């Protein structure tokens, strides 16, 4: 398929951020977007890069009623020498297709996903921020666009990619989070949509996050929906525990998002000779390990923050400080290594970097 | 708030259906729609009735990423004498507000919801079908419209109502459904969003529904997400069992949609002197009762079909006919009574009817 390019009228270019360090996440968007339509009888069609603009959506568009929508999140990094990097984008394209299958949506050829993003980055390359730490956030999205009321998989879809520059997540060093363990609300459950990157999982996180916020915590730690006993995720991140000198993270049993940063941390740890255990971990074990001092570090992993150290945890109205609230050595090491690889400052022994060449 | 009215250009009126009996559900929409915006600092504002048209949505509109959206479904009925009826609309407005609270969205004053629908029905009253059984389907919807990437409750929302004529659900008498009991996939779980009428619950039903369809069944029967032992709902309906001469339906424990037809059946049954039990019911008990012949009837309840008799049920690869697949006496009686009340053909001892007067 040939991608049509319709550049923005130069007079209508969106203002570039005056100060990259002041960018608020998710509020500034680049000049262009990629769009492509799907119809059941014709497949994907009409791929195009157009000026960033409002979508025309029928008020009965199925996504607005039945939540048939999935997305991805990745970043474009500008290295000091001007090269543009993506971090394991193939993983995003593959996960988008896994999410699609779970939601009964059409898949998109991985090579074509690369091509679509390539065309978009090419026309908007000046939007990729220049300072190390800042990046271009990329949001591929697929939604059910068919105008139809009645629950079933749609026959028409829209796939689009929007991008926007974002500031460094930690401009002044780590900002550890405090987490509230929810044993009342659950994000998802085995047999549900937990492992798909789909809107439903985020919708079900809102209420508990507000409860946590009111209690003075920044994130929710989710327990499994069946027994409310095993740790699953934190906020919108995967979670890791350093117990003594081993790394523990919950296994991917269907209700947990298979995070790309999660996978990278596991690979890096193994590479460094750290014992990594993907195994069920009970919240009681977590609390015991904090109490005994065996818990050296707790951190979340995700695309936005990369590593998000946890300083404090509240469970059943009791609060626990993790390692006096200080950022752990491993958190810092994983962060430095991954960010270093992303910006081409460190070697990439895993072949994680995809260099975008225009 | 004053509702502005912008009537459609007469030349642009949408074609009215030539044959009301041929209307497909959810595909035909009336000439106008109601819209209203919400901003965190200003509350609900700018209520208006405008021609039915595409919504302009930013591609970063939060609903398209994080699924913050809720809806309602009700019908407008034209009686033989020309009166226009709604069935328990107050229940819809109240449920919309309960769903809103669960999704951290703003509520809408119940009286104003009435007023908004009233204005819309007034301008589109000719769209309400004339034949008994057909009706005007009404879809109030609230979505997070704020352009923003990042998970949190939005600060801007859009509320809208669209309507469209629909044919009688059973033009030639009941069409019993066959149901597939899913013990692999779950719709939701306690601590999740199950009791809210929100997109997430429908999204999580798609995959299992396709599995059921491939196996030759029309609907999925959902079990609880914790033990996969207790019956919850069927498809997008509540479920009732007539065991001997008692009526059993699962209780509203948080993961089940509090259906308005469900509530009406319970009230009618009590009115008729039938024992109704809102109690947990195991799938094993259901199967045993079918086997022993104690299970006289199984039926779903919902706004679209009112009563949907179940002829067959498949559980763990075994299939069970319910009462030889024949429509039960109670299913017919509940259906006739509720539909009779809706169209003003039967007395309404409960005050369920809201007459729309223009």
From TrEMBL, chains A, B:
Reactions the enzyme catalyzes: L-leucine + 2-oxoglutarate = 4-methyl-2-oxopentanoate + L-glutamate; L-isoleucine + 2-oxoglutarate = (S)-3-methyl-2-oxopentanoate + L-glutamate; L-valine + 2-oxoglutarate = 3-methyl-2-oxobutanoate + L-glutamate
EC numbers, comma separated: 2.6.1.42
Pfam families named among the record's database cross-references: Aminotran_4 (PF01063)
Keyword tags: Amino-acid biosynthesis, Aminotransferase, Branched-chain amino acid biosynthesis, Pyridoxal phosphate, Transferase
InterPro entries, per the entry: Aminotrans_IV (IPR001544), Aminotrans_IV_CS (IPR018300), Aminotransferase-like (IPR036038), B_amino_transII (IPR005786), BCAT-like_C (IPR043132), BCAT-like_N (IPR043131), BCAT_family (IPR033939)
GO biological process: amino acid biosynthetic process; branched-chain amino acid biosynthetic process
CDD domains, per the entry: BCAT_beta_family
Gene3D superfamilies reported for this sequence: 3.30.470.10, D-amino Acid Aminotransferase, subunit A, domain 2
N6-(pyridoxal phosphate)lysine: residues bearing it: 197
Pathway where it operates: Amino-acid biosynthesis; L-leucine biosynthesis; L-leucine from 3-methyl-2-oxobutanoate: step 4/4; Amino-acid biosynthesis; L-isoleucine biosynthesis; L-isoleucine from 2-oxobutanoate: step 4/4; Amino-acid biosynthesis; L-valine biosynthesis; L-valine from pyruvate: step 4/4
Cofactor names: pyridoxal 5'-phosphate
Single Gene Ontology MF annotation: branched-chain-amino-acid transaminase activity
Function: Acts on leucine, isoleucine and valine.
Family: Belongs to the class-IV pyridoxal-phosphate-dependent aminotransferase family.
Protein name per its UniProtKB record: Branched-chain-amino-acid aminotransferase
Taxonomic source organism: Desulforhabdus amnigena
Primary gene name: ilvK
